[in-house]
Design brief:
This protein has 725 residues and is mainly β. It contains 6 helices and 46 strands. The strands form 8 sheets. The chain has a 22-stranded antiparallel barrel. It has a 5-stranded mixed β-sheet with strand order 10-18-19-14-15. It has a 4-stranded antiparallel β-sheet with strand order 3-2-5-6, with no helix packed on it.
């Protein structure tokens, strides 16, 4: 018995390795919040405010550690035995292209080494700009995105194609549930965002149906502190208010992450008149209205995630979220308010197999509902009663295996099953359900030094539209500071259940589903030239995206019974055109010294309906962003001033007045103060739309922007990070 006890104690002592040290910058100043992790394991910690860390793990072999922090070059080194007082010096990287991204290839890659170009908006970019919604972050920080905003929703466009061709994900899980055909992105809690990864162009080989225009993947924070609490409060004019709370705890093998965000505003009216068009004569009149460009609203988002690390290699998680949003419409103009609700849950596991390989399995489910809350008696509904108008349910099961057969390749093999369900009173012959299953394979090859190739493809079987194959190939050549990339990929989009079966009315028109639709397909080609210097980053990308069987609404004759109820236009979803989108994206980021950084981006988009030789609706040809940032470190404290501008040319509408061109400029002052030990306070004050641009055309016009003019805001962030080591 004693022999066994001694043997167990010996094995335990042998297997435990403890590493302690500090992560510092070149001036030997502490870097708080830096990540120190054991490569190819689930284990890692965050540094304290003095830059210290301590990590204990089981090992009987040499382990490789990696230290990283935003704005610094990461560093790896081997550790043989337990030591104390490591000093890890990280050098600043003013042009941050060393961060890890996953969206381009589905595997972890350094941004500068990714064969598929990925654009990144970091949490620091978001904080400095003052953006507090996903719309404001994408609009002000990436010129490729435009938004068409109405009182109901924001429709997102990227490089000339609307959001139905774009997959939006949070931590790799697709967001589903739409408002008027556009995915509801107001559910995203910006207070918990670590970075936004943007992949442009057809990506169906990795991400399946709908990824014709690209993928936006929002990566959320996973703090490595033993205890982490963040409170963000923001107030602005028009009674704008945002409160975000985040609580994270790491206790041994168990991890918990909780976040909550409240967002609300009183809304505003841009013009007290409304456009009215006589359905018989076509005459235009302007009448007084109570309708508002932005309605009063509130929204709540709650997220919870639990994680468990069974060992260095095996981990599990479960997660859930709840969202609700109510839009208050003027009672003088409407019979009901609008209410949206979404709840989702999921679970998964991941096993690390070494050499950056792993096995994973994930399941997620989301239920999105839209309801009316009546403010007047209407038909059989009384004041205050709810009427559920639509419910969308989306389930997905995904299994993935990443492994290497040889030293110069990495293979991703995966399978996915998706079930999509739509319930609505607007579907006359019952609720609808459709499934799709897929297999995909990708190989990342290092051919010779400086030359990488990624090839892959996905075979999808759709319940209605049968089999479809989407290939892709990407090539990257590195020569000194230059990266040259080129790629081809195919896109595939099955008609949505809304386009197939849904029938809805809006503003005197009715849209009908069409069960005889064909899937939309695309071919995407891209060429990218990139220069990565120590203080400057330049990128130029040219692309062509050709679509066929594009689905749109076709005007048909109105049914007599609909005309009797005031319907003056009837549309049916149809495969109406071929389209081609070609353009150029340019990016410049530079550090000129003295804490000053400058950035600029430009996007030229030529989006054409090839059948009718006209521009695609809702598209702008030119958009650009300019950013100037000054950051000054004063010991462990810092001061930041940020000026950011957005220009967008007129937005095209067939048969209607275009939305006019506009400029928006925002200015913000941000500070970071280390108070008591483990506490950081970050106050910010700013002004949006400093030149007071207002598009005050009558309600019902195509607006350039819904900004009410110059708006002041103030925000305060409180952070508490605690590690008992």
């Amino acid at each position: 018995m004693s022999t066994v006890l001694v043997l167990c104690c010996s094995l335990f002592a042998f297997s435990q390795t403890t590493i302690r040290g500090y992560v510092l910058d070149a001036n030997k100043r502490a870097i708080p919040g830096a990540s120190v992790r054991i490569e190819q394991t689930n284990q890692g910690v965050a540094t304290n405010f003095d830059g210290s860390f301590s990590i204990t793990f089981s090992s009987d072999k040499v382990e490789k550690l990696r230290a990283s922090a935003y704005g610094y070059n990461s560093k790896s080194f081997d550790v043989v035995e337990s030591k104390g007082n490591f000093e890890i010096i990280l050098l600043e990287s003013p042009v941050n292209i060393n961060q890890v991204v996953i969206t381009g290839t589905g595997t972890h890659r350094r941004l500068k080494n990714s064969p598929v170009p990925v654009e990144v908006i970091s949490s620091t970019n978001i904080k400095n700009s003052g953006a507090h919604t996903i719309e404001s972050a994408l609009t002000m920080l990436n010129p490729s995105f435009t938004f068409t905003s109405t009182a109901m929703s924001d429709k997102m466009f990227i490089n000339g194609l609307d959001s139905k061709y774009l997959i939006v994900m949070v931590d790799g899980r697709k967001i589903t549930g739409d408002i008027s055909g556009s995915v509801d992105i107001s559910r995203i809690d910006m207070g918990n965002v670590k970075r936004i990864e943007i992949l442009k162009g057809a990506a169906s080989s990795l991400y399946g149906s709908d990824a014709i225009a690209g993928v936006v993947n929002i990566i959320t924070n996973r703090p490595k502190d033993q205890f982490n609490f963040i409170s963000t409060s923001r107030i602005s004019e028009n009674k704008g208010f945002m409160q975000s709370l985040s609580l994270n705890a790491n206790q041994g093998k168990i991890f918990s992450s909780t976040s909550y965000r409240r967002l609300q505003s009183d809304g505003w009216q841009l013009n007290p008149t409304e456009i009215k068009k006589n359905s018989k004569t076509g005459a235009i009149t302007y009448e007084p209205t109570a309708k508002r460009a932005v309605n009063s609203f509130y929204s709540n988002v709650f997220n919870q995630r639990f994680g468990y690390s069974h060992s260095q290699n095996l981990s599990f998680y479960v997660q859930g979220s709840f969202y609700d949003r109510k839009s208050y419409r003027p009672i003088e103009a409407y019979n009901y308010n609008m209410f949206y609700q979404d709840y989702s849950y999921g679970a998964g596991t991941k096993y690390l197999t070494g050499n950056d390989g792993y096995l994973s399995m994930d399941y997620s489910s989301s239920v999105y509902q839209y309801s009316k809350i009546y403010t007047k008696e209407s038909g059989s509904f009384k004041i205050g009663e709810h009427e559920k108008n639509k419910e969308q349910k989306y389930d997905v099961l995904n299994a993935k295996w990443v492994f290497s057969l040889l030293d110069f390749n990495k293979i991703s093999l995966g399978a996915e099953y998706v079930n999509d369900n739509l319930e609505s009173k607007s579907i006359k012959d019952g609720d609808k359900n459709v499934y799709m299953s897929s297999l995909y394979l990708q190989d990342e090859l290092k051919i010779v030094d400086g030359l990488q190739l990624v090839v892959g493809g996905r075979y999808s079987y759709h319940q209605t539209f049968k089999g479809n194959f989407t290939p892709k190939a990407s090539l990257m050549y590195t020569l000194g500071n230059f990266n040259i990339r080129t790629s081809y990929s195919a896109g595939f989009k099955a008609p949505s259940l809304l386009e197939l079966f849904y029938e809805y009315e809006s503003r005197g028109s009715i849209s009908l589903g069409n069960k005889d639709l064909n899937p939309e397909k695309s071919h995407y080609g891209m060429f990218n030239l990139e220069y990565v210097g120590s203080n400057i980053y330049l990128s130029a990308t040219g692309y062509v995206n050709s679509l066929r069987d594009m689905i749109g609404r076709k005007l048909i004759e109105t049914r007599p019974e609909d005309a009797a109820n005031g319907i003056n236009k009837t549309y049916v979803y149809s495969n109406i055109s071929k389209a081609e989108v070609k353009g150029i994206d340019l990016t410049l980021n530079s550090y000129i010294g003295y804490g000053i950084s400058l950035g600029a981006g430009y996007s030229y988009t030529d989006a054409i309906d090839k059948d009718n030789d006209v521009r695609l609706n809702n598209t702008s040809m030119h958009s650009s962003n300019v950013n100037a940032n000054w950051d000054k470190k004063i010991g462990v404290n810092s001061v930041n001033i940020n000026l950011i501008g957005r220009y967008q040319s007129d937005r095209f509408y067939l048969g209607e007045d275009n939305a006019k061109q506009y400029q928006l400029w925002n200015l913000s002052f941000n500070g970071s103060y280390k108070g008591l030990r483990d506490i950081i306070i970050e106050p910010s004050i700013g002004v949006e739309n400093i030149f007071d641009f207002v598009d005050d055309k009558p309600y019902g016009s195509n607006y350039a922007t819904l900004s009410p003019g110059m708006m002041f805001y103030f925000s305060l962030v409180f952070k508490l990070n605690k590690n008992w080591r």
